[in-house]
Design brief:
The complex is a heterodimer.
Chain A: H1 2-46, H2 60-116, H3 121-151, E1 157-158, E2 160-163, H4 164-181, E3 185-189, E4 195-198, H5 200-217, E5 223-230, E6 234-241, H6 273-283, E7 287-292, E8 298-305, E9 313-314
Chain B: E1 4-17, E2 20-33, E3 37-41, H1 48-55, E4 63-68, E5 71-72, H2 78-88, E6 89-92, H3 104-114, H4 121-130, H5 146-159, E7 164-168, H6 176-192, E8 196-201, H7 204-207, E9 212-217, E10 220-224, H8 227-232
Parallel strand pairs in B: 3-8, 3-9, 6-7, 7-8
Antiparallel strand pairs in B: 1-2, 1-4, 4-5, 9-10
Helix pairs in contact in B: 3-5, 4-5, 5-6
The chains are: A alpha+beta, B alpha/beta.
Chain lengths: 316, 233
């Protein structure tokens, strides 16, 4: 009866082999499935192209894949809606600010007319205050438009290989009058030309905001120095003043929206200059740093990437 | 709703040295918001490294809790903790800790491969480009400068797409010019990829790059530039 034993043994071995094989196959299926799910989810989250194969199969993957496709569609739709919403908000802010220009201009006009009339000294005082407030409204509106563009990401930063010296020059020319009025010495130390990839229009805005603050917070007869220096990874553009300086606890806060030092409450300005400057630098893959001690002036440094990727458009 | 990605509640770490109890951390309540860049500054022995190790799940507290993204680290088993750490946190150490036999690219993708995940090559190449390492992909770490090696370590931490980056004196072995450059890159990269960055340093200049500076002394937080704002928010 040996042959019976042999058959049983062979049968058992065959069954065992079959089980091992089946186990191996199942494991492979599961791995393949997990991998497909991972790829699909990753594609959905990062917005990449993704192809669902075996669409009509009733396999394990086929069913899950179809569901994931639905998820992708819902996700994309939400992204689109969010984008449209942002466009709407931006449009709204633009419209409002545009509408406000006329009434504000009228108020200014009538105030000027009033100033020309014979009014009491008290009235003169009040008129001056009204004028200041109107200018503030004007400024607020402009800032709001700029901010909304940067925030909603509709604004595009276009980086091009351009001369930073020129960009600095334009920002400086916008503060030269105010600096001269306070007898502040403005000094620029930068190679000409200083070629670097940057968005020259928005960078000018960032530099101007810092310069404007520097002039505002520096005493008469003070100094403002601008140095541009190319380092290994970044190009450093520093703007230092001999003004009142900033306390350590406030140094991070000054970059937040609407932050203003309590002392300058009366002067024009709204507190988003530095916030804008920081956002502009971040969008350009750079950053801002401040070094300061109360009473010892402040030094703001803008850092621009030296080795830059070729993409010329960055949106938040 | 305030979203704190890292939170500690009355965190304590005591060591018994014979008769004495060394209080490395003595009741620390620390909260970090998503995407914040916080610098923890303090002298040697102030407890800053201990705090970072607690946050990274590398060490267990004597008392108190650590919550990462709302999840308590306390209940987790060793393997769960390891996986959690690998997925949520990227570490950057003073000593770079690169594998000398692997080239730059291989070093950067190592944690991803160890986790059994697929490498997103486009993303990794993007990081390498951002950190100025595209030309050095095939190079061995031994031939790179200190600053370059630390950049590779940063790329490695970023590549796994963690939510939180923990850096322990990352510029300790670098000269001051390189330190500033490297940290600038780290700051910029973490903003680009939306990560929270918690950095330990004894260097005030480096700490100033952060959004918020927390001062730790004798196991307690004695200063926090973010505190005022929190109360006003």
């Amino acid at each position: 009866m040996d042959w019976l034993m042999e058959i049983v043994v062979i049968g058992l071995i065959a069954a065992a082999a079959g089980l091992v094989w089946k186990n191996y196959r199942t494991k492979k299926e599961a791995e393949r499935f997990a991998e497909k799910v991972e790829t699909a989810l990753d594609a959905i989250v990062t917005g990449k192209e993704w192809d669902l194969e075996e669409e009509l199969e009733d396999s394990l993957w086929g069913r899950t894949g179809t569901q994931l496709e639905k998820v992708e569609q819902v996700f994309r739709k939400k992204e689109e809606e969010s984008f449209c919403e942002k466009e709407r908000v931006k449009g709204l802010i633009s419209d409002i600010s545009h509408q406000i220009k006329t009434p504000v201009a009228n108020i200014k006009l009538y105030m000027e007319l009033l100033e020309g009339e014979n009014v009491s000294p008290d009235a003169q005082k009040f008129l001056k205050k009204i004028k200041g407030q109107t200018e503030k409204i004007d400024f607020l509106m402009q800032s709001m438009v700029k901010m909304s563009r940067l925030e909603t990401g509709i604004l595009q930063i276009h980086k091009e290989e351009k001369d930073l010296y020129e960009t600095i020059g334009r920002a400086v020319s916008a503060v030269v009058a105010e600096a001269a009025a306070k007898d502040i010495d403005l000094y620029v130390d930068c190679e000409k030309p200083m070629q670097i990839r940057h968005d020259s229009k928005w960078t000018e805005e960032a530099i101007y905001n810092i310069l404007d603050n520097a002039v505002k917070y520096t005493e008469n007869g003070g100094k403002i120095q601008i140095h541009a220096r190319r380092q290994e990874l970044f190009l450093q553009l520093s703007i230092s003043d001999t003004g009142k300086g900033i306390a350590l606890e406030r140094q991070a806060e000054i970059f937040t929206r609407f932050y203003r030092e309590p002392e300058v409450h009366e002067k024009p300005g709204v507190g988003i200059g530095l916030y804008l400057a920081r956002t502009i630098m971040e969008l350009q893959k750079g950053y801002i740093e401040v070094k300061s001690e109360p009473g010892k002036g402040a030094c703001f440094s803008l850092y621009f990437l030296v080795n830059d990727a070729q993409e010329s458009i960055t949106a938040l | 709703m305030k979203n704190f990605i890292v939170e500690t509640k009355n965190l304590k770490k005591y060591y018994q040295m014979g008769e004495n109890t060394v209080k490395a951390l003595d009741g620390v309540d620390f909260r970090v918001k998503d995407r914040e860049f916080v610098a923890i500054i303090g002298k040697s022995g102030s407890g800053k490294s201990t705090l970072l190790h607690m946050l990274g799940g590398l060490d267990v507290p004597t008392e108190g809790e650590v919550l990462i993204d709302g999840k308590r680290l306390k209940g987790l088993k060793k393997e769960q903790l390891a996986v959690f750490r690998r997925r949520k946190i990227g570490f950057i150490f003073q000593n770079y800790n690169l594998v000398p036999d692997l080239n730059v690219y291989e070093n950067v993708i190592l944690p991803i491969e160890l986790d059994g995940r697929k490498v997103d090559t486009e993303y990794v190449n993007g990081i390498l480009e951002l950190l100025g390492l595209s030309e050095k992909k095939e190079v061995l770490p031994g031939t790179l400068s200190g600053g370059q090696q630390q950049r590779v370590a940063i790329a490695r931490a970023l590549a796994a797409k963690p939510a939180i980056l923990l850096a322990d004196e990352p510029t300790g072995n670098l000269d001051s010019a390189t330190s500033h450059d490297v940290l600038g890159l780290l700051k910029m990269a973490s903003k680009q990829f939306g990560q929270t960055l918690i950095l330990i340093t004894h260097d005030r200049d480096i700490a100033q790059l952060a959004d918020r500076i927390v001062h730790i002394e004798d196991g307690k937080i004695v200063g926090d530039t973010g505190k005022e704002r929190e109360d006003h928010a």
